[in-house]
């Protein structure tokens, strides 16, 4: 097994590994080490079955159950029954970084259908943390962020989730939220990282949205620039695994309402049903 870089510091392609064969403990250890180093792994070797995809992820950790049926995989696409539906732009985020336990550990997608090139864009928040100027780092080091999501549908298209969008009478379960440090630590590797995201960060604790946005504007300049991006152009048969704690991902508006379908298998300590079991009712706007 060997690895070739996909960009300056994000991603590596995996060669000479037969995904149709059992994954040994030594190989799984090497893959996890490579994932911690490169943050993203690409397997581009032809068709990968449901069973082979699941077996690979099982060798690397605990597979998360994301739906009510407890399935080991779901689908990402543009049809109503898929995990992610619609064609709108998706802002940079890490999946479920609004959970008290933090962002999901790792995500994998396998391209079953891809009629057009609708690439996924990745940015490394450990690299971004290192890129912060000393004065800005010192100023924001003690800040905490309110992270949230919106299950109610109140957030405008192409917007970020804000607690201020939670209208009167809307239960907290529709706006799960948690507090995380702006500059935190990767819970597995211990690396410093930025927890700020375009999509799921509502505001800084103790600040208004406008005050928070002024700080965010200074930081964003060091998060998503071309020097900190890997753009993945999908091909049918691609299997991509990425570190969802370190990397944020985004997607421009999809070019059409069909022709994109990916199988999704996730590694995480908790299942989806347990992520938001303890939604805090005392995290509010200033």
Distinctive features:
Double-stranded beta-helix; 2 domains; alpha+beta; 16 strands; 7-stranded mixed sheet; 286 residues; 6 helices; globular
Tell me what the structure shows.
There is one protein chain. By secondary structure, the protein is an alpha+beta fold. The protein folds into two domains: 2-91 and 103-114 and 230-270, Double-stranded beta-helix; 125-220, Double-stranded beta-helix, CATH 3.60.130. The protein contains six helices and 16 strands. It has helices at residues 25-38, 50-60, 125-131, 134-140, 209-220, 272-275, and strands spanning 2-5, 12-15, 40-44, 74-77, 90-93, 106-114, 120-124, 144-148, 177-181, 183-185, 192-194, 201-204, 230-232, 238-243, 247-251, 260-267. The mean pLDDT is 91.
Q: Based on helices, strands and strand pairing, what is the structural class?
A: alpha+beta
Q: Tally of extended strands?
A: 16
Radius of gyration: 19 Å
Mean pLDDT: 91
Question: Proportion of β residues?
Answer: 25-35%
* Total number of distinct structural domains: 2
The helix fraction, in percent, is: 10-25%
Number of helices: 6
Report how far apart the termini are.
53 Å
Q: Please name the fourth-level CATH homologous superfamily of the largest domain.
A: Clavaminate synthase-like
Mass-distribution shape:
globular
Short description:
This protein has 286 residues and is of the alpha+beta class. It has helices at residues 25-38, 50-60, 125-131, 134-140, 209-220, 272-275; strands at 2-5, 12-15, 40-44, 74-77, 90-93, 106-114, 120-124, 144-148, 177-181, 183-185, 192-194, 201-204, 230-232, 238-243, 247-251, 260-267.
């Amino acid at each position: 097994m060997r690895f070739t870089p996909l960009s300056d510091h994000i991603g590596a392609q995996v060669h000479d590994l037969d995904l149709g064969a059992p994954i040994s403990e030594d190989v799984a250890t090497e893959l996890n080490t490579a994932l911690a180093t490169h943050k993203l792994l690409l397997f581009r070797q032809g068709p990968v079955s449901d069973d082979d995809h699941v077996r690979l992820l099982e060798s690397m950790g605990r597979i998360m159950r994301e739906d009510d049926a407890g399935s080991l995989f779901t689908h990402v696409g543009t049809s109503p029954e898929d995990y992610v539906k619609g064609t709108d732009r998706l802002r940079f985020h890490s999946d479920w970084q609004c959970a008290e336990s933090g962002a999901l550990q790792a995500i994998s997608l396998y391209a079953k259908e891809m009629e057009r090139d609708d690439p996924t864009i990745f940015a490394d928040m450990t690299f971004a943390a290192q890129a912060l100027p000393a004065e800005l780092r010192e100023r924001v080091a003690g800040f905490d962020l309110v992270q949230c999501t919106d299950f109610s549908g109140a957030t405008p298209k192409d917007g970020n989730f804000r607690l201020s969008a939670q209208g009167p009478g809307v239960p907290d379960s529709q706006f799960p939220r948690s507090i995380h440090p702006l500059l935190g630590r990767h819970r597995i590797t211990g690396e410093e990282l930025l927890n700020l995201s375009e999509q799921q960060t509502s505001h800084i604790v103790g600040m208004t949205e406008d005050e928070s946005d002024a700080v965010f504007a200074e930081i964003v300049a060091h998060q998503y620039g071309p020097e900190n991006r890997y753009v993945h152009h999908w091909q049918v048969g691609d299997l991509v695994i990425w570190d969802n704690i370190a990397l944020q991902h985004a997607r421009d508006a999809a070019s059409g309402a069909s022709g994109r379908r990916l199988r999704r298998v996730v590694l995480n300590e908790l299942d989806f049903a347990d992520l938001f079991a303890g939604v805090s009712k005392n995290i509010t706007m200033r």
